Queue: 2 jobs
Job 1
Amino acid sequence: MGLTLTWLSLLILIPLAGLFVKTAELGFSQFIDTVTSRRTLHALQISFGLAFLAAVVNLFAGLVVVWALVRYRFPGRRIFDAIVDIPFALPTAVAGIALTTLFAQNGWLGAPLANLGIKVAFTPLGIFLAMVFIGIPFVVRTVQPVLIDLDAEIEEAAACLGASRRQIITRVIVPSLTPAILTGFALAFARAVGEYGSVIFIAGNLPNVSEIAPLLIVIRLSEFRYADATAIAVVMLVVSFFIIFLLNRLQRWAQTRALAAS
Amino acid sequence: MTIVAIDTVDIGERRVSAGKKDFRTEPAWIRGIVIGSAVTFLTVFVMLPLVLVFSEALSRGVGFYLSALGEAEALAAIGLTLFTAVISVALNMVFGVAAAWAVTKFEFRGKTLLVTLIDLPFSVSPVISGLVFVLLFGAQGYFGPWLIAHGITILFAMPAIVLATTFVTFPFVARELIPLMQEQGSQEEEAAISLGASGWRTFLVVTLPNIKWGLLYGVLLCNARAMGEFGAVSVVSGHIRGETNTMPLLVEILYNEYQLVAAFAIASLLALLALVTLVAKIILEGRIEQGHSHRDD
Amino acid sequence: MTIEVRNIVKQYGAFKALDNVDLKVAKGELLALLGPSGSGKTTLLRIIAGLDWPDSGEVKFDGENALSRGVGERNVGFVFQHYALFRHMSVFENVAFGLRVQPRSVRKSEAQIRARVKELLDLVQLDWLADRYPSQLSGGQRQRIALARALAIEPRILLLDEPFGALDAKVRKELRQWLRRLHEEIHVTSIFVTHDQEEALEVANRIVVMDKGRIEQIGTPGDVYDNPASAFVHAFIGESIVLPIDVQDGQVKLGRTRLNVDACGASGPSKLFVRRHDMRIGPAGEGALEGTVRRVRTLGPIQRADIALSGDDRLVEIDAPRDRPLTAGDAVSLQPRRYRIFAGE
């Protein structure tokens, strides 16, 4: 017990405390200046904004995928079920270069898109697509067990009461899945915000255009502007903390509705 | 006589007979669209990138592929990656078990805080994790002067890589074990202790066998992440060729130098690791399921 | 509404869930489908509801073919063993659900829906729970809400699938009475499935006893108890003493003992069924069977004795009134007053 606490404090608390301490070195007004500088704001905007959009896409795509995997049977279903975890298991650098090559001007997908006038690699669109890739497992795997465990009798009861299939889905099934959907969304969002390896190759990394916040932190570090780097990190951390906090709230809300078998 | 069962319909694992306009499932055309969309989405976003890795790696033939892997830098990177993984996994196995043990078998104040802390490296950007180590051990860092005075190099060298990797992969074992151990409860341990076994012995003989599949699973995920970690390690390593480059870092370097095939060659090894991890994961999930059903007897 | 079921067959591979089942349900009656698991009773109920489809046969509601309609169009109320309440909705919304999903053209106004829900919650005496969620209710309360929900759409028939199966014994008994009284109040044609024969005997107007996909007997609780049509029904309903006998030339033999009872038209290896309380006990030598009392216990108004039959050492349990107390060791004779003999092993 004591062993665990010691290890944890050494490994986690001290480094994190150090982060805040270092930022404090800046002094409050300089902290605000750094954080609100044009380049920083842009980087934060890109990271949080695109992560949010990517999570939204994953919300809908994830629902479609999980529904097909759980409710339907089709050839290759097991394989598709297994590969959902690839974005989670694949090292981020590998994903990064693969996606970049895929969407490059002469890539398998990049070429047809270029013919349509759409440039993906080295643009915010590329960042967005990489973030979608990264978030795929989160909505699917969070919703999947809930959908699998959904009682068939609930749907039968609704049908007996006269509900059409559409009504059964919208009034009974989806509301039962909502907490899991939101949890998956939050997880995908949190992951995409902090993502570095998968995004860094396909992003253009142009300041104010396609530069993600983690990259800006790395750049500030290489410039030995440690305090600036930590300032950005602190902002990201605070927002991440809020997300975890919301997640816990969501899970507790799901429990009051007793969606797990009681 | 009217024959009325018109159709059999698959709903997930069940096969049911359906009348017309059955309430249990969507009309065939909707099913087609949903399946088609799901398959297209997964193919484009997951299958294609994966296939591309191997396709590019082998695009100059198997000979080139193998020689790329045999380069000195490549071998050094592979060695460093393996070494780091072994240490991180070993450390996190021990402390992950300890943490899960503490959380599930005891009641104490600050338990929620402990659980949140365990989750923290998981939800924080890897770059921030790396940043934290730079702050601690860098020349301008907290321990910097002390380390320099004692001639110890941590940052931009192998120790930093191991530390950063361990930090980032810490949650995997604990997160896997906590729900498993919570579900199993403390009854068996309490019984053992009441029969006179020591804490340590109880752990070895009672707890460990019960959690072995969950532990293996956590170790598996931990290892996959440890070998593949990029962001945190990128920040703390010096990117010194042949010395402080792990496989993911080498991939980046080779890619940026337009040595695409070599980059993908190394990447393909990592991709293979991911695939092996997934297969093992599926097998282990089956074992853990069986463990659950046996316990109900 | 009357229900007619004709020649229903339902098979799963080689397993016959329903084997040519015929049934007529009268308007307003409360009918029990009684049988062990695997007897097909739930399958039959679900087919009537529209939750499942037969391989062949007819189902008619008031003479009209019901099988041409899906479950939503048959206007049936269904109550599930595990309630199937919508957990993310309040009790009020659960009961209102059937009214809310009606097509715009026939849907009631909000005020009317509210009034109807209140009426139903009053009927089940749970109006004070309207704003709670299912997870906050006890099992008995949940089932009553499920019933209210089913009644909201003014169904022509009410179908209940082991409605009290998930509740503990005391609640089960309370709800049984409650259902009986409710039925007397609202008079909806109702069918409920149960494997608990006591429940069927207590609640139903008529009982349909089923086994292995076939109907063994249909009758009032009295009929089914006093005049069982087959060995299965006799054994399943109430407690019976079963004696394996052999009938040759009209003579009934238990082992080597000849029994002074009527063979009831059976011959060959058969079974003699007697109710515990239909065995008259007398002094030794006066009855069809002889035996020794092994053990006696008093159970309220009766005494229950284990009697070892002589020549067989088989133990039978009989119930006798307490006016002439028995003791262990007594030699007694037993004479079946009312009994049935069914041929077959």
Job 2
Amino acid sequence: MSVTKPLPHDSAPLHVTGAARYVDDTPLPAGALHLAFGLSTIAHGEITGLDLDPVRAMPGVVAVLTAADLPFANDVSPSAHDEPLLADGTVHYVGQPVFLVVATSHLAARKAVRAAVVTYRELDALLTIDAALAADSRFEEGPRIYEKGDAAAAIAAGSHIIEDTFELGGQEHFYLEGQAALALPQEGGDMMVCSSTQHPTEIQHKVAEALGVPMHGVRVETRRMGGGFGGKESQGNALAVACAVAARLTGRACAMRYDRDDDMIITGKRHDFRITYKAGFNADGRITGVDFVHYTRCGWAQDLSLPVADRAMLHADNAYLLPAARIESHRLRTNTQSATAYRGFGGPQGMVGIERIMDHAAHVLGIDPVEIRQRNFYRPPQDSSSKKHLAKQEVTTDLQPNTTPYGMEVEDFELHDMTQTLLASSEYAARRVAVAEWNAANPILKKGLGFSPVKFGISFTLTHLNQAGALVHVYQDGSIHLNHGGTEMGQGLNQKVAQVAAARFGVQLEAVRITATDTAKVPNTSATAASSGSDLNGMAVKAACDTIRDRMAAYLAERHQVAPGSVVFQDGAVQVGAANYSFAEAAQAVYEGRVSLSATGFYKTPKIKWDRIKGQGRPFFYFAYGCALTEVVIDTLTGEYRILRADILHDAGASLNPALDIGQVEGGYVQGAGWLTSEELVWDDAGRLRTYAPSTYKIPACSDRPDVFNVALWDGQNREETIYRSKAVGEPPFMLGISAWLALSDAVSACGSAYPSLNAPATAEEVWHGVRRINDGI
Amino acid sequence: MSKIHVTTTINDDEVEFLCDPRESLLDVLRDRLSLTGAKEGCGTGDCGACTVTVDGRLVCACLMLGAEAEGKSIGTVEGIATDEELHPLQQKFIEYAALQCGICTPGILVAAKNLLERNPDPTETEVRYWLAGNLCRCTGYDKIIRAVMDTAAEMREAS
Ligand code: FES
Ligand code: FES
């Protein structure tokens, strides 16, 4: 069967020959025009003068547009209608698009932009968490609060109380392909848009609003993205809308791509957080209660900040059964880029909070950091072999319901066994001793080990998004063509979905073809996000395939007077009683029998129910799990460090494709570790992002990969009925990177007696400061 | 502004083009010659997505002017496979799933092929540092390195 096979990405032969086409590789029709935005140079102010005549006079310029020139909606927000395409009198951050240049080449458009003369009346800019709090500048009326029990009393009842505050930086997506779109005017006022987006339906929606046409007048196609990571969930709207408006105005094809520096200056990033915590522990390392306050900089517009901040709250427990918890979340409005979706969607930030607490508590109580985590894990399901590890948990916990702070029962907790397996395969106990010996013997280079588990909730927390559609055609020669609502950004979604279709029809994978995601084929899709791509679209495709298969079986069964249920689709053949058809012959016969060989499929996730205001319900269909152990070495004189080894065990359920899934795990870990180590975003006092290119923003390179990198998938099945019992794997492994940050903390703590209290990212500079903080006497 | 006439060799074919004196080789390849295999990831020489060879040396095409190609021999990802066959590196990249979104792949293949031409038996560390200028945001690099190491081993055996 085609599912569970480790097959390469379906586009791999195109990728390696340079033939895979991304938006900017599309051959343009003659006369195509190119666009660039003129950007705000101040963080907050009113535009008092906008002299664009010098821009119009620049070579190659065809048109220059401002907000006043837009025929219909001036809005590219995915949520609150608070994000104009072009500034409408006020600018809210450095980098906000103010005007749009349409020119004969990309370079001409970019050059012309610089000729503009813009004057402003500057207003106070809120750049920091403190400034936004002081001004009470926020989204929603006040903080959201989720509670379980009486946290304050539970904390006070602990024999040890720990508290601290730390900063957790944001992250630039750095998809290697920058944002790009292309609009091609069609007859009758219709518009065709090719966009590098995770959310074609939203592009369609926003373009339709901007052109004042119904959604049926706009068709959006997405063949592939050169990386997305959440950064193309809403951030592509501006380019697509700009292209469509300019194409409507000029009647010519219009293309737009952001140069890397524009991309980094204009688009939103991962939300940065400040987390304040207070937790109570018993002497045996059992947590009694916890109180978190999350402060997050959402930037100037709402975008997806509310669900991101919600998801951070929903992951404040990570893998631990918290007897009592209070989580307070402030969504602050600042004059910076509008922070947006990024792999994990707030989950990583929430998780770092509780992992920090576990690390801190282990240090204070003198308990092994892995041991203290195991003692606080959720309980495994009743039927699980993990029961044997329960000896570690006290009887009292067994009496508490195994529920999250938001009242969801944890029914599929896999981490007891997974942790044991990883500790054994990574030889944790022996390496812990070896690290201690190394640190005792070496005054300058110190090593550290960090362990972190992941429990990540799968489903969109906005319940209605948990639906998907598909369109499948079987042609009379037996070849199969399908579309689904998901988009391909490198994760191999199309391959996984094709594997599902091939398995349903019992044919070779080569018989199945998936083409570009197209809003004219599958309507009303959700973003390919929340790791949901193969869960949702795989199921929708399965439904469509089964509809066609059942029709084929019914027709052929009648012809041969057998029961439809006895017809077997296998190995490229269809067995009907004694008769054996090739799949192509069967398709031909069914077609000649005047039976439809085309069907749509639909899926909606069952069981979920969520009230985000009360913070109660079952927001997730299931959880995906993973655990990682990272070893680092630091130079205490310079703060430099290297990741020496990473061992990972990740739960992809019954993996649909282990090659693709392991790729997600490896890439996720490295990206997560990058977030917490080298990737630092720096804004200056004027609100200008100073790290706007790879020269100043350091994502992991080939030379940064761990020297030893052992990645394995957990041999399990999803307990819920997902597509072939697999689990989503896009986001969860990202958080395995937290172990790298904890390993650095461990190494720093070898330099003194106090807790290092590292901020994130733990750049070489931060590690150096950490060493200085605790190295009594320096 | 008047255009410059350039005669050069690209993937062993003689090519002539006219370009603006300020136009980068990358823009010439992509916009004038429809060789879109080389990608722009940064435009500042920091990501390697635009990697090509110029007379056998690795160059970021975004940092070189098209006019400088005069008389040179340029190699791009489009020239790695023959009509009939993928290069062993290309085969291994597919086999190892050493790519996800694939947009870094052309630059990495050009760089890796160049390494193996200079050093058929590189150590893992040599591979890692040779490719350190080629960023990949998706894969975490592990499969890339293993694909290159394995190709090197296989090519040594074959020769
Ligand atoms: S585009 Fe040339 S190095 Fe990045
Ligand atoms: S595969 Fe996406 S950047 Fe390398």
